[in-house]
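Review form for a predicted model. The reviewer records the input and the model, then writes brief findings.
Reviewer: anonymous (R2)
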Amino acid sequence: MSQKKIFLVLVTISTVSLLLHHGGHLSWTMEAFHLGCPALRSHPAPGLKPKHTNVAFLKTHKTASTTMQNLLFRFAERNNLTVALPVQACGHQFCYPRSFTTHFVHPHTLPPNIVTSHMRFNKAETRRLMPNDTIYITILREPGSMFESLFSYYNQYCQSFKRVPNGSLEVFLEEPWRYYRPDEKDSMYARNTLTFDLGGDKDRPAADVAYARGFLAEVDRVFSLVMIAEYFDESLVLLRHLLSWDLDDILYVKLNMRTPSSKRSLSPGLPAKIRAWNSLDARLYDHFNASLWRQLSALGPACVAREVKLLRQAQERLVKSCFGGRMPLLRSAAQIKNKDLRPWQPSGKVDIVGYDLPVNLSRGFSSQAQELCLKLIMPEVQYTQVLLRTQSLHYRRGYQLRPGQQSHPLQQPIRTALPRHLQVQRSQLPPAAPGPASGTGSTSTPKPAAGTQVRTTKLGPKSSQTQASLTQK
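Model under review:
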């Protein structure tokens, strides 16, 4: 046999061995190879980029961001990464709605690889906190469905909503300035919430086109990927390629959802009024929805559709393995026996549902598998508390082992309260324990018309035509 043939045989044997070594990923890799798509198994194959582990996810409100946060929490734990978490005086958010500062970060969670709790974005302070190679990501949602969710979720906290007769969304949108007060508590939930979360001026007049364009350009510069809630799975495909992650790293279960009875469909004319009232948010969404589809198109529709299909199949297998071979039933908080799995309820008018694990889960399950299933469905507040306890324990152990080591530049002695000049007034904190959080959402959103101008991205080739079916919050 010639040397060339021997070499080819060795290459073939090595390739098959590598694929078999990666077990469950064999079918993903072979299907992608058949399509000519980028490899689905991106790590730890030789010669390929390692997983990117420094990520700042700006958690916006009512945009499927709780589902995304849970995904990042689990990724951090699997890879022994540090997640920046709030000081106790801030609750489970970084003293939102105050503009973020590093003083809001618990010293036991420094230096971080990931930050993903609610904050009002402050670029300078976030960059001071995070490593230089951090990739910035956020998520947006269609303004109509998002505002309906905000109005429902925060109607017992936001005075602009509370003073509306009969809690009517139609009445509010008829004369929003009659009920809205720009400077009062929780007003950020009543107008241009996405803009506010991103650090912008929620009350800038719609006629100020120069400000809107400048703000869009700044978001474009800072964030490498802006996900869209209506196309959550497609957004995750782009995320996976951007960060060189595996499909296993982007598996999720939808969290923080409302019951159908807590939702309302928008009557004709309301979506247009919502967009007019939230004009900056509408501009943001239109721009980055178009951008998302440009990125998906560059990756290749067939490749993205196949990755979305494989992602959903893998999720179904994982979820069924956690719930006794069947898909889980959504349960009200009162029906969930495990208190660590009960989602917070914003008011008696809104029901947030969650999941409960089967009582016989421990049979045939390793402790590691049980923990995976538990964390997969754990609500935001409880998971934040678990992470803080775990990371504080690691911090104390590390401190005892290295008593002479210099601390991180941002680390300060633990405070029972914030510095006086940063003290958060009770009226400025989110609703008391635990405060509002965001979760999954969904609507039907058309793709942008051909020729729509979109941004140039750092993601390289991408694309798809399938729509994620996340349940509307």
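Findings: Strands lie at 55-58, 83-84, 114-115, 135-140, 225-228, 257-258, 352-353.
Further findings: The first strand starts at residue 55 and ends at 58.
Recommendation: see findings above.
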